[in-house]
Every structure is written in C-alpha cells, then in structure tokens.
Amino acid sequence: MTKTPTILIVDDEETVRRFVERVLQDAGYQTATAQGGPEAIEAAARLGSFELLVTDVMMPQMTGDELARRLRLKEPDLKILYLTGFSDRLFKDKVTLWEDEAFLDKPCSVKSLKEAVSLLISGHVDSAPAGGGKTAEPPKTGGTREREAAGGAGKPGGAGQSGE
Questions:
Q1: String of b and e for 109-121 (b: at least 16 CB within 10 Å)?
Q2: Roughly how many angstroms between the first and final C-alpha of the chain, as a whole number?
Q3: How many other β-carbons are positioned within 10 Å of the β-carbon of residue 73?
Q4: Which DSSP state fits 100?
Q5: Among the four residues 2, 36, 110, 115, which has the most C-beta atoms within 10 Å?
C-alpha cells in the first residue's frame, strides 16, 4: 500500500490556511498547518518526514523562502509550493526557482492548487482530479529558468494562472 503524502501548509492568514487545508484534504492528502515560520519548524520536527511544504512568501518573523531554506537543511529533497500575492518580492533576492519548487499567485483556484500539488508530488496531474474537468497549464516551476520565465513571461503557451 502506498503512503498518503503529507503536506505542511504555512500561511499567516487563517482564511488562506483553511482554504488550502480543505482543498488538499478533499484531494486525499494528509495535512498539518502552521501560522508562520517558527511554528512550521516545530510542526516539521513533530511530523518527521513530509513530502511538500506549501507556504506563503511574505509572513511576519520569517519569509517563506527562509523557511524553505531552513527545512531543506534537514530534508534536502523537500518540494516547495510558494503561494504569493507578491511574486515580484519572491524573486527580489531569489532569481530562480529550483527543480522541486513552484509558485502560484494568490488568490488561486481549487483546480490550480490541486494541479500544482499533484505535479510537485507525483510529476503529473492526476488523471481524474476530485473536482473533475480538463487539465490546465502547469504551475510556474523552477529549474534553471530565469526570473521572467518562472513568472510566466516568455513561457510557451501563455503566462500564469489568470482566468481560473
């Protein structure tokens, strides 16, 4: 039997945290939540191992990027999904996303959140997402692309998550 993936969700906005948690639980994932970086580090220690960190970028006390860096010291293969209303700030000091990183602009749709998580965890979009329907453009992912490509400009087939 395959282990159900566990996802740590971190956002200082309770409504966002609850939305992401509900969507991912409905999609069959196990979840844990934290309000910010310090609480997330404690939650990660309690969890031991988990497959994905879904984190806000701009939070008090610790940014999502700093949280990801700290968690990867113990778990180098940890996959990261950044949720942000400030994608320009995500790339202020970080000019590229790594291979196992992606981001979605807030607000995001249920469909785009499920697809981004599925792509990061399994490498593909589930053939029958819980919400049904056709698959859409994958989330903006990292690798060796420069900032502009990660943000969607110059990406074949158009840019971003707009219109969902």
A1: ebbbbbbbbbbbb
A2: 35
A3: 8
A4: T
A5: 115
CATH topology of domain 6-150: Rossmann fold (3.40.50)
Model confidence at 137, pLDDT cuts 50, 70, 90, reads very low
131 residue type, one letter: G
Whole-model pTM: value is 0.75
CB 125 within 8 A of CB 35: no
Helices (H), the chain: 14-26, 37-47, 64-74, 87-93, 110-122, 147-150
> Domain map of the chain by residue range?
6-150
What phi, psi does 132 have (nearest 5°)?
Answer: 70, 180
DSSP string covering 131-152, please? Answer: T-S---PPPEE-SS--HHHHTT
Strand pairing category for 140-141 and 101-105: antiparallel
